[in-house]
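Module 6 notes. Inverse folding takes a fixed backbone as the condition and produces residue identities as the prediction. Think of it as a translation problem where the source language is geometry and the target language is the twenty amino acids. Below is one complete input and output pair. Work through it position by position during the lab.
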């Protein structure tokens, strides 16, 4: 069994304890492992979103108009200056 060190922009990570063939057998990723990774990554985000809607209510979260360029201090498109 060989170990190899993974290099990243933050330095060197500890060596892998499994050979690459064990991680990806025959060079083909396991679809069930990929599905599990996608679900476990998305599930907390979906749950936080739904919990926020339940706690705060949809009306409170979406009761405002979307921001406009004037809210960022940009002049209106017609070129007139607004005084606030």
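Target side of the pair, the amino acids:
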């Amino acid at each position: 069994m060989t170990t190899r060190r993974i290099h990243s922009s933050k330095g060197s990570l500890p060596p892998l304890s499994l050979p690459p063939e064990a991680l990806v057998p025959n060079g083909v990723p396991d679809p069930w492992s990929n599905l599990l990774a996608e679900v476990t990554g998305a599930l907390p985000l979906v749950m936080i979103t739904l919990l926020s809607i339940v706690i705060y209510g949809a009306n409170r979260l979406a009761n405002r108009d979307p921001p406009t360029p004037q809210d960022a201090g940009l002049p209106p498109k017609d070129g007139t200056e607004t005084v606030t």
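Reference fact for the lab report: The longest strand covers residues 7-8.
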